[in-house]
Amino acid sequence: MGVVMSIEEIVGSLDSGMTIGIGGWGSRRKPMALVRAICRSPLTDLTVVSYGGPDVGLLCAAGKVRRVIAPFVTLDSIALEPHFRAARQSGAVEFTEYDEGMFMFGLLAGAHRLPFLPTRAGLGSDVMRVNPGLRTVRSPYEDGEELVAVPALTTDAALVHLDLADTRGNGRYLGPDPYLDDLFVKAAGRAYLSCERMVEPGELGGPPQTLLVSRMHVTGVVETPDGGHFTERGSGRERDEAFQRHYAASAADPEAWAAFAGRFLSGDEAAYQEAVRRWHEQDGDRDHGRGEAR
Amino acid sequence: MSASSAARAEICVVACAEAWRGDGEVLAAAMGTCSILGARLARLTFEPGLLTTDGGALLTAEPVALGAPAGAVEGWLPFREHLWLVQNGRRHVMMGASQIDRHGNTNISAIGDWARPKSQLLGARGAPGNTIADPTSYWIPRHSTRVFVPAVDMVSGVGFDRAAALGPRASRFHGLRRVVTDLAVLDFATPDGSMRLVSVHPGVDVERVVAATGFDLVVEGDVPQTRQPSDEELRLIREVLDPKCLRDREVRA
């Protein structure tokens, strides 16, 4: 059963050198409040397992990452993640590049205590070349087909962000897509759940199939209002496109990034949320002319 | 509104739609504006059995305008189900490519040496699985020698030579259907699976396509023109599927 923790307590329980799974997909329902807290922590040398978005970008920019394991890193409405690109192009991070289906099979294997799962995805592609550790396996039946044996993607800890959670660590998603968050949680040694809103046990409501994450897999849960910002969430909170554009534009230039980091990332989560609110009031809508109301 | 007034982007939308002709009841998975419009146009006209999405996790009851809410829904396809569907095979995907070679190997991962790329792109995304498991086509909005290269820097999507090397069993679900660009339609209907020029878009000559292609293209006899949209297709594109003319941002007139 999960216990209610603070952002700082969760991040404080992680260690340098760990392999961390991060839920969500691209720039969608990412546990950004926890990611931001890792960025300002002394943690380093992390291996990050993610359908990558600004979580991977921010952690790369903060120098927290040794290796990224991902099928892609994208901001969705902005195709390429500038910090991840810079980190790859400067050789600052190592990269395990998988097909996105392979990646799911790795999570499925990890979630079900299997050493690997077979799939066709990857055969014939350079994913096999750039991951020389990947092996194939031959079907023991008469078809004798050779398939990729995707190794289990187990992690030391998983961080996922859901729209609703209760104080025990049960979590519910409100959008149309659960992503692979339940698999991230099950494939992890321990899992931490952040949520837009926390309720008492029994008050999660909704159709039961939206109860994606069970307390049996959760170590700690924290309420982080707007903690998924600036990524898309399912609770009627669209991606903050204006702010994401500001993030991406800033990330492309060292001076602009220093200003961005100073303004938004130098304080705690409450300071971040306040700085974003002020940005929308002062600069966002004027500078971009398309700033969405938050 | 006459067919002769069709803009290049509209020619491209119809050429993309043609990729799904004859596919029946499969998911038309599309990436890129003209490709998405093509999938929805095909469903509205000659391939009504196709399934199309809202661009997200919802299978829409009817094709909707680009960027519009899903409206009535007939199915649910979150990413996990989409990834399973790739394995299941009732799907024909039209992807983009930053590089493509004569056998249809494609790269969306990185330009330059993979270990330390000159330009990091998306990552392999679903390209390896898509190409080995499902019929695959490509939509490339800028036909140029930067994209059509002798050899791709990283094989994200598997071409015919790579598939053949895997043997008939492992490659039995591989099949590249067509490549649509802003200049032409191409396919791989040659003995060794080399890329062939199928048609050039109105206003484009064969020499221009050859010059924009960084490898030897198979050109057989007189190359026909890509077909014009019908009046009804133009109406559907302009009034129903893309009233905001987002297609013109992808392909210049």
Quick summary of this structure?
Chain B: Belongs to the 3-oxoacid CoA-transferase subunit B family. Chain B: Pfam families: CoA_trans. The complex is a heterodimer of chains A (294) and B (253). Chain A has helices at 7-12, 32-39, 54-61, 82-89, 100-111, 127-130, 181-186, 241-251, 254-264, 269-288, and strands spanning 3-4, 19-22, 46-50, 65-70, 94-97, 116-119, 135-138, 146-151, 155-166, 171-172, 188-199, 211-213, 220-223.
Total number of β-strand segments of chain B?
Answer: 12
Counting DSSP H or I runs of 4 or more residues, the number of helices of chain B is 8
Biggest pleated-sheet summary of chain B: 6 strands, mixed
Counting H and I runs of at least 4 residues, what is the number of helices of chain A? 10
Assign a percent range to the helix content of chain B.
Answer: 25-40%
What is the end-to-end distance of chain B? 17 Å
Unreliable stretches covering 5 or more consecutive residues of chain A: 289-294
Task: Give the number of domains of chain A.
Answer: 3
CATH architecture of chain B: 3-Layer(aba) Sandwich
**Portion of residues in helices of chain A?**
25-40%
Q: What is the count of distinct domains of chain B?
A: 1
Mean pLDDT of chain B equals: 96
Task: Tell me the structural class of chain B.
Answer: alpha/beta
Protein name (chain A): CoA-transferase
Keywords (chain A): Transferase
Pfam families (chain A): CoA_trans
InterPro entries (chain A): CoA_trans_fam_I (IPR004165), NagB/RpiA_transferase-like (IPR037171)
